[in-house]
């Protein structure tokens, strides 16, 4: 069937993937993942876990999360209903884009996927109601390796497209340390992950 289009981003090692979408009067068909097509495009990860979250309202903000140490994960992210602004932060000390963030619109309309390498903090805010958010991981979730930074980190100055005071967040996410507070214990080193 179709091949994928891969676009490099401003952030080091992050890619936007656009699978071929075949539509007609009935709807569409797409191969959301083909190991063969991804490998031919130079994306060769052994994805071993699929995750799925549902956010029922616009304004849900999840993140910024990561897994530390040997539990670090590469993620392949997509949205199958609704739309999000997906935000990632390069946490890898020594990276040319260390401490930088970017946001990407992922939606059921654009069918885009985002490849997030190990060493990036990840989060998103829902732009619509009823967002089904799916992602593949190349490592299993490990509660002991769970980490995060605040989505309000002043040094990152993330431009969230909502009234941040009205964001719907978890208690855990509301209490994460700022990026600068986390830097002293940051285990991510560019080229070593």
Automatic annotation (TrEMBL):
| InterPro entries, sorted | RmlC-like, RmlC-like_jellyroll, RmlC_Cupin_sf
Instruction: Please tell me which top-level EC class this enzyme sits in.
Output: isomerase
- The domain of life for this entry's organism is Bacteria
Any idea of its EC number?
Answer: 5.1.3.13
Which reaction equation describes what this protein catalyses?
dTDP-4-dehydro-6-deoxy-alpha-D-glucose = dTDP-4-dehydro-beta-L-rhamnose
Q: Which UniProt keywords apply?
A: Isomerase
Tell me the route in metabolism or biology where this protein functions. Answer: Carbohydrate biosynthesis; dTDP-L-rhamnose biosynthesis
What family name appears in the similarity comment?
A: Belongs to the dTDP-4-dehydrorhamnose 3,5-epimerase family.
Query: Cross-referenced NCBIfam families, in alphabetical order?
Result: rmlC (TIGR01221)
How it assembles, according to the record, is: Homodimer.
Q: What does this protein do?
A: Catalyzes the epimerization of the C3' and C5'positions of dTDP-6-deoxy-D-xylo-4-hexulose, forming dTDP-6-deoxy-L-lyxo-4-hexulose.
Q: What is this protein called?
A: dTDP-4-dehydrorhamnose 3,5-epimerase
Lineage of the organism: Bacteria, Bacillati, Bacillota, Bacilli, Lactobacillales
């Amino acid at each position: 069937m179709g091949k994928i289009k891969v676009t490099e981003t401003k952030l080091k090692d992050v890619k936007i993937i656009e699978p071929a979408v075949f539509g007609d009067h009935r709807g569409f068909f797409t191969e959301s993942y083909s190991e063969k097509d991804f490998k031919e495009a130079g994306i060769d990860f052994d994805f071993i876990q699929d995750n799925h979250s549902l956010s029922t309202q616009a304004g849900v903000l999840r993140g910024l999360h990561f897994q530390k140490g040997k539990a670090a994960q590469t993620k392949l992210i997509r949205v199958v209903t609704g739309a999000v602004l997906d935000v990632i932060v390069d946490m890898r000390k020594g990276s040319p884009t260390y401490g930088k963030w970017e946001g990407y619109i992922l939606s059921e309309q654009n069918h885009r996927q985002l490849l997030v390498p190990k060493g990036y903090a990840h989060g998103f805010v829902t732009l619509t109601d009823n967002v089904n958010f799916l992602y593949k991981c190349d490592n299993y979730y490990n509660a002991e390796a769970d980490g995060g930074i605040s989505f309000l980190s002043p040094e990152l100055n993330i431009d969230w497209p909502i009234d941040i005071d009205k964001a719907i967040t978890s208690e855990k996410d509301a209490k994460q340390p700022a990026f600068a507070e986390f830097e002293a214990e940051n285990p991510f080193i560019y080229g070593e992950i």
